[in-house]
Amino acid sequence: MQGRPCLGIVTTGRPAITMEGHLAWIYLLIAGLFEIGWAIGLKYTDGFTRLWPTVWTACSMLASIVLLGLALKTLPVGTGYAVWTGIGAVGTAILGVALLGEPATAMRVASIGLIVAGIIGLKLAS
Fold it and tell me: Which tens digit of pLDDT belongs to each residue from 3-29?
């Protein structure tokens, strides 16, 4: 049974779930939150003509990419990138409704739910 977990230890001698793996998911979550920050921040920069919203947006972009890079040291790139963009898409859509008065139609809410289901599925598959 090579590679199958047995009491939390994979037969290769590596732990089935490592602290490094948990940390990668935390980095990815925070990276996704910064992605929401820069996506919403773009609206407030007014075409990069307003200084402080532009500074916040640029800092959020940098933090998001750095944390994504740290997460991808451990996580598969396809999973990490999809979860990162999913967190950003869901959060930005929700804040678009809450902060910017965008419509919260049934189709939009259902679509956000599908993205969330995909994120959960990718997490469970990793």
Answer: 544 444 444 444 445 777 899 999 999
Return the structure tokens found at 124: 């469970």
For 105, the token pair is 């139609």
Q: Please, what's the b/e burial string for 57-95 (b: 16 or more CB within 10 A of its CB; e: otherwise)?
A: beebbebbeebbebbbebbeeebbbbbbebbbbbbbbeb
Residue 45 to residue 36: CA distance in whole angstroms: 14
Predicted confidence (pLDDT) per residue in 36-84, tens digit: 999 999 999 999 999 999 999 999 999 999 999 999 999 999 999 999 9
The length of the chain is 126
For residue 96 the two structure tokens come to: 């678009």
Residue 13 CA to residue 89 CA, distance in Å, equals 38
For 9, left (φ over 0), alpha (ψ -120 to 50), or beta? Answer: beta
Tell me how far the alpha carbon of residue 103 is from its chain's centroid: 23
